[in-house]
């Protein structure tokens, strides 16, 4: 009985130790530059702040290191007229953009919006941090 209990406890301890071990890198081989996306249809997050971008027109999924790993305070309240605020950052009117997708980086809490501008049909990603600051996530020199 004692032997079975000790055996079970050692299995639990080994399992717990492996759980707390450092996770392997999500991306092992990377290329730096612009991924030359034809479209941004969907976005999601992998571990370690890696943004996954689905490009249906280009028939590809691109993984991008955001470098966004530090936990931040979440938004204290909702941002009213978020579409107008997002559009304003890129010089458009609220009805001049389409919000295609939204993903929140679990590592930092920062929100990422996949946007399509209606005038030229260009695609881009905007971020909103815990203070409500909106910025463009540049895809020019990503890894």
Short description:
This protein is α+β, with helices and mostly antiparallel strands and 143 residues long. It has helices at residues 2-20, 82-89, and strands at residues 42-46, 50-55, 60-65, 97-104, 111-117, 123-128, 134-137. 19% of the residues lie in helices and 29% in strands.
Explain what this protein looks like in three dimensions.
- By secondary structure, the chain is of the alpha+beta class.
- The chain has two helices and seven strands, in the order H-E-E-E-H-E-E-E-E.
- It has one domain (32-137).
- The chain has a four-stranded antiparallel beta sheet, with helices on one face. Strands 1-2-3 form a three-stranded antiparallel beta sheet, with no helix packed on it.
- It is globular.
- Residues 1-21 have low confidence and may be disordered.
Sequence of strands across the biggest β-sheet = 4-5-6-7
Shape: globular
Strand portion: 25-35%
Class derived from helix and strand content = alpha+beta
Topology:
Elements: H1 2-20, E1 42-46, E2 50-55, E3 60-65, H2 82-89, E4 97-104, E5 111-117, E6 123-128, E7 134-137
Antiparallel strand pairs: 1-2, 2-3, 4-5, 5-6, 6-7
What distinguishing features does this structure have?
143 residues; single chain; 3-stranded antiparallel sheet; 4-stranded antiparallel sheet; disordered N terminus
